[in-house]
Write a structure and sequence with these properties.
Blueprint (H helix, E strand, L loop, with lengths): L1 E5 L21 E2 L8 E2 L11 E4 L2 E4 L5 E2 L5 E8 L3 E18 L4 E10 L2 E2 L3 E2 L5 E19 L7 E9 L16 E8 L20 E3 L14 E5 L4 E9 L27 H8 L16 E5 L1 H7 L6 E7 L7 E4 L5 E5 L8 E6 L3 E3 L2 E10 L2 E10 L2 E4 L3 E2 L7
Parallel strand pairs: 2-8, 14-18, 15-17, 17-22
Antiparallel strand pairs: 1-8, 3-13, 4-5, 5-13, 6-7, 7-12, 8-12, 8-13, 9-10, 9-11, 9-12, 14-19, 15-18, 16-17, 16-19, 20-23, 20-27, 21-22, 24-25, 25-26
């Protein structure tokens, strides 16, 4: 067993903060003494899964081990904590915490920032070490991930603190003008009845995708991190709800310098693809398994069969929507999917689908047939890709320029 230790916060930190009290689903504003760290309450917000609160600790819950897209059988839990707001923007933070990781288990704390009116992707935060943010921000959020083998001890994270600092170089993980797009090999995930990395139980003909890094993993039921996946004739918009295939620390959509692993590979090239095609890393993944296909994304059955009309694993074009700016909307349905049509009309041919809570790109808006949905009755349709439209009655979005 690895012994528990307290990670000490570094000195000479730079901004005004305060100890605070919080309530669930609120953003916490600091109010008191300068240079004090903020003690983050152990309060998981909606979307967290398989964790328990024991005093100041977040502890792995009691759910059994599961096999997701990475094909690694383990017990895992995820807790997003209440966001913290600082008195002024900061380009870096120091996160302090203690951990208990018995019997081959692990515990990780990640941080993200509110930049340009949206959340950046998650960045691992080493205890007591400055972590650069993708851009200046006065609001951050912490996430705890605890994992363990199918049997054995229970990992935990406790005594979580955060405070701004100027003791880190600005991050190179900036938000681009246009989100990254790359061509990768897609495989079908299947695993109906299984559990994804964010705690979602997979249903028949489900709609989500898996990417091989938790940096772009959405919380259960949300689509903060979504992708647009396209073939030559169809597109699907889906939330990222699982981690895999093959690797779990291969954020290949990021620049090589800020990629968590495999920094000598070019941006947009999955490690599994390099291993399969070029013998990179001896042809193996991060777990030492021989890579049997070049997959860089896994597709849930509904995405694979229905959204994209695939019958076999195939090369697809994937746009990682959170990596860039541009018009966005959120699919607001209670279950299933929203049809993407080839005209702004309910009778238009279906040329794709958008899953529950997924983000969709919006190029412009036009008028068409009237539709009644979660957002009321409207004849406005959003163009989400050339020649592809969704009814705004089912999409939470602002107003866009006319097509």
């Amino acid at each position: 067993m690895r012994t528990t230790r307290r990670a000490q916060l570094t000195a000479c930190l730079a901004a005004t903060l305060a100890i605070f009290t919080t309530t669930l689903h609120t953003t916490v504003q600091s109010t008191a003494a300068p240079t004090d760290p903020v003690q983050v309450a152990a309060q998981p917000v909606a979307g967290s899964s398989n964790v328990k609160v024991e005093g100041s600790r977040i502890v792995l819950g009691d759910a059994p081990a599961a096999v997701g897209s990475s094909e690694i059988k383990q017990r895992s839990g995820l807790a997003e904590l209440v966001p913290v707001r600082f008195d002024a923007p900061t380009s870096a933070v120091v996160v302090g915490y203690t951990t208990g990781t018995p019997d081959g288990s692990s515990a990780e704390v990640d941080v993200r920032a509110w930049v340009k009116d949206k959340w950046t992707e998650w960045t691992p935060a080493k205890a007591g070490t400055p972590t650069a943010l993708p851009g200046p921000s006065d609001q951050v959020q912490l996430r705890i991930i605890v994992s363990a083998p199918p049997a054995g001890g229970v990992p935990w994270v406790g005594d979580v603190q955060v405070q701004p600092t100027d003791q880190a170089d600005p991050s190179r993980m900036s938000v681009q003008a246009a989100p990254l797009k790359s061509r990768v090999f897609a495989t079908r995930e299947g695993l109906v009845g299984g559990t994804t990395a964010n705690g979602h139980v997979i249903v028949n003909r489900d709609h989500f995708v898996a990417l091989p890094s938790r940096r772009g993993l959405s919380a259960k039921g949300t689509g903060t991190y979504s992708v647009k996946v396209c073939t030559a004739s169809r597109c699907a918009f889906e939330p990222v709800w699982d981690v895999g295939p093959w690797n779990t620390k291969d954020d290949y959509w990021n620049p090589s310098a800020t990629r968590e692993m495999w920094k000598d590979l070019p941006q947009g090239r999955p490690e599994a693809q390099a291993a399969y095609q070029n013998g990179y890393n001896g042809g193996k993944d991060q777990f030492g398994r021989t890579v049997a296909n070049p997959a860089g994304i896994d597709l849930a059955d509904g995405t694979f069969w229905d959204g994209l009309g695939l019958t076999n694993n195939a090369w697809v074009d994937v746009t990682y929507l959170w990596t860039g700016d541009g018009g966005r909307g959120t699919v607001s349905i209670t279950s299933g999917y929203l049809n993407v049509r080839n005209s702004p009309n309910s009778s238009g041919a279906v040329v794709g689908m958008a899953g529950k809570s997924a983000q969709v790109t919006v190029e412009c808006q036009t008028t068409g047939s009237s539709v009644t949905g979660s957002q009321g009755t409207s004849n406005v349709w959003l163009r989400v890709h050339p020649g592809m439209y969704v009814a705004k009655a089912y999409v939470a979005a602002g107003t866009f320029a006319a097509c």
